[in-house]
Please model this.
Amino acid sequence: MAHTQSGSGHIVDGEYLKQIEGARRDLHNLLKDNKQFAPIVLRLAFHDAGTYDASTKTGGVNVEVTGGPHIPFVPGRPDAPNQQDSGALPNPNGDVKHLRDIFYRMGLNDRDIVVLSGAHTLGRVHKDRTPGFDGPFTEDPLKFDNSYFIGLRKADTPGLVKLPTDKALLEEPVLRRYVQIYAQDEKTFFDHYAQSHKKMSELGFNPPRCHVNA
Ligand code: HEM
Model:
């Protein structure tokens, strides 16, 4: 039986992966025909990982349909018994310290903070949900590319949104260096994004079963 290793180093059995693969394909097809839902599903993946309160049982988010990298993560994080309060998620008006508090708590690091923020290449801000801001982050909010980082280093463009937490990435030398790299090199952005997204999605994951006699 085939086995594979999750990012956390666990071995996962083949039947389980087959079921997940089916769910992943269904989700991919659904999103391919309904691209406009991809940003919200991606955002949900972040909220899910950040709060440990929702299920990934039916497969993982795949952003591939918007032009992003394929992310071979192994779903199966258990639901937490209690929903955490929304203070566990970043506040868009927060500063660098706030971002680090939130992401470090999730087990993520500086590179993860910057590269995952690149998900704001997709989607938009809604003024009813995020008072004071309204509009997409980039020119083409359904295309996954490195335009978020390119735009971040330029002057504000009327109609496009930069949240205080987006701008904060330029305020600290370590974070700013990653912004620069990803603005200049889309391939590195995709590679690092796939790694960090996998890491984020597998937080708290323990595989259901292992048939390997280690
Ligand atoms: C760094 C800290 C982050 C902050 C403070 C933040 C905050 C926000 C806010 C305020 C919005 C607008 C919500 C609305 O008005 O509908 C938004 C949208 C979005 N966020 Fe983030 N976010 C962060 C990181 C992330 C990460 C790590 C991901 C995924 C990996 C992500 C994916 C998205 C997506 C795809 C949207 C667009 C959703 C839509 O179009 O409805 N964000 N984010």
